[in-house]
Amino acid sequence: MTDTSEGQSRVASFFEFERHGTDIRTEFIAGLTTFLTMSYIIVVNPAILSAAISIEGYSDGEVFQMLAITTILAAAVGSAVMALYANRPFGLAPGMGLNAYFAFTVVIGLGIPWQTALAAVFVEGVIFMAMSSVGARRYIIEFFPEPVKFAVGAGIGLFLLLLGLIEINVAVADEETLVSLGNVATDPVALLALAGLAFTIVLYAKDVTGSIITGIITTAAAGWALTLSGVVAEGTLTPDGLPPVTYDITPLVGAFASGLRDVEPITFAIVVLTFFFVDFFDTAGTLIGVSQFGDFLDEDGNLPEMEKPLMADAVATTFGAIVGTTTVTTYVESSTGVEEGGRTGLTALVVALLFVASLAVVPIVAAIPTYASYLGLILVGLIMLQGVTDIQWEQSDWLIPGGLTIVIMPLTASIANGIAAGIISYPIVKAAQGEYESVHVAQWVLALSFILYFYVTSGGVVG
């Protein structure tokens, strides 16, 4: 037996190819496919977080590059842990929706320093590691109402879709209607972004692998071409200037530690609680959604050995907070690799290695305008809407919790609020139907917990 064939045999044995009916070639193609479909996060995550994170002595472009590097490192470590520990074909990276919540709600909205927000992510990551080690997360997730499970993805999709449309100047604030159509016909950013979106949609409709990242890069290139040719003024469709190339991320690494100093206990507890709810149920929804797509769920709609991918998620989240990025989670784009036949952790390992290789293109990332990177939010948001087909709309105990979960997220700009609304309404509807016995006591506990969460976060005072 040659060294090559012996090595392949060891890989096949480690990842249990025979059990899952796969091979190295299939797993590699699946990993490449998953990476290409989720690689937009390298651009989009820094675009979102840079709205909330500024570092004295560094330009916006330099901070953008730092955030791109930490995004890549967190994705690589998370995917590697998923591969080697959980043996699941799921790619991990800083979560969409969770990064927006960090930037626009916690830091900008609540005025919490970004270092303290990272500290909150770190703390909830450690809590999740402890919970996952004893199987507590799995236990809670299995009592997650089914209508809410299947509605989470669509709700997050609507939320991301709205954020993307706002960033490309298509949706703008309006005093009378809250949101209205912007001056698209006279806005160069909106015109180019819509053209780029149309191009991206065409690629996606033709099943072109990597359609999102291709659309982002092409739109950015068009913006630079129009600027350099003098069609539009400098700074209109491109960044005002390109920062020097830097791989120094020391200002971000360990920044969470300073966020733990001089913390106001009650405020910090609320922030941790908020991240806990958002991360807990967003991860659960995405993990279940991808597993559903890959037919990994059992007859009860649960993922066997779920504690392992949940632990991978917890470890990745904790590591991500240490290096300076937001909550890391399983990506719904992993379904593309599963569709290509990926069934084991080798798929996720390929994703991890490709993320490491992408460190070489970080300097280019800083040249991509924000509006181009936000095209990824729009298309991902649209893709995530497919989850509505799994909801049994004809049944009121699905219609009401599922519908509330979906619409409350974008209307309140909060993933947690949408999930909370669905969880609170589920036992109420079931009880109204006289089906008391079908509601587990844990579901009542979750509902009451979220009522308290709403009370505290909306200004209520206990006592």
Automatic annotation (TrEMBL):
Keyword Transcription included in the entry's annotation: no
Record GO biological process: purine nucleobase transmembrane transport
Spans through the membrane: 28-51, 63-85, 92-112, 148-168, 188-205, 212-233, 268-290, 310-332, 344-365, 371-391, 403-429, 441-462
Keyword annotations of the record: Cell membrane, Membrane, Transmembrane, Transmembrane helix, Transport
Subcellular location as annotated: Cell membrane
Pfam assignment, any one: Xan_ur_permease
Record keyword Ribosomal protein present: no
Xref: InterPro entries: Azg-like, Azg-like_bact_archaea, NCS2
One GO cellular component term noted in the UniProt record for this chain: plasma membrane
Bilayer topology: Multi-pass membrane protein
Taxonomic superkingdom: Archaea
Protein family: Belongs to the nucleobase:cation symporter-2 (NCS2) (TC 2.A.40) family. Azg-like subfamily.
Identification of the protein by name: NCS2 family permease
